[in-house]
Amino acid sequence: LSSIRVGTGSIAGVVSGSKTYASAGLTGSKMGTFTGGYVVCGVGRPSDFPAAVAGKIALIQRGASIKFADKAKAAKAAGASAVIIYNNDESALTWTLINDDDPTATTFDWPLAVALSKKDGEALAAASGDLTVTLREDDYASFNGTSMSSPHVAGVGALLWSLDPSATAGNLRLVMTATASDLGAAGVDNVFGAGLVDALNAAKQLKPALFSAPVTPTDQVPSGRRTLRRGRT
User: What confidence score (pLDDT) does residue 224 get?
Assistant: First the structure.
């Protein structure tokens, strides 16, 4: 998760009673919030939408080689006010309504459309009631790959260099690699590299003297009660 240009990201959510389901907006979707009942609409074929979906939320499963855009258009044609498409596997929910082969995709009046995981979608398909679907602008986004990890590693390198300007690039690289939290296959691997960079542990290894602090005095209280630290509540 990282900050991005203000207002260029989005945050989505589906709420059922007291439960909130993690979701993602489909690229091109209308922004907004809608609350109402929902109707299970199969995999989004035009024949899968009953008349009862008009004015409600269409809950659609991914699959049948039907594009997300076509599912959303069919839902809108049936009168649905919002669309939830849930996954049919465990892949990421990075979906779009904008297809290069559709010249009207960027100007079409898409409905509010969000994506859910396979598990959460199946849970809703087996239940009923009202949902609140939200998609709004946000200043943060999640990405993966070296384009996202590189600036984080470079930032940690800059922090470490500020602690020890005489350190070489090789020194900093060794410290960051040695203190990273291993991910994926044991040791360095092609997917996660050396692991998750850990700025604090790297700094402690590079300049341990800067992180040694005196023990905070304590007031001892009778056995069976907490020990209170000065200046804390």
Answer: 40
**CB 184: neighbour CB atoms within 10 A?**
12
Please report the pLDDT score of residue 222 as a whole number: 41
Measured CA to CA, the distance from residue 91 to residue 81 in angstroms comes to 26
Looking at residue 214, what is its pLDDT?
57
Give the pLDDT of residue 145.
79
What's the rounded Cα separation, in Å, for the pair 56 and 81? 5
Could you say which residues of the chain have pLDDT below 50?
215, 218-233
Report CA 126 to chain centroid distance, whole Å: 25
What is the C-alpha separation between 119 and 166, in angstroms, rounded? 52
pLDDT value for 122: 98
In this predicted structure, what is the pLDDT of residue 213? 64
Please report, as a single letter, which amino acid is at residue 83.
V
Q: How far apart are CA 11 and CA 32, in angstroms?
A: 11
CA angle, 49 then 46 then 100, to 5°: 125
Burial 71-90 (b: 16+ CB within 10 A, else e): bbbbbbebebbbbbbbbeee
For 170, counting Cβ atoms within 10 Å of its Cβ (0-12 exposed, 13-18 middle, 19+ buried), the class is exposed
One-letter amino acid for residue 226 of the chain: R
The answer to whether the beta carbons of residues 84 and 133 sit under 8 Å apart is: yes
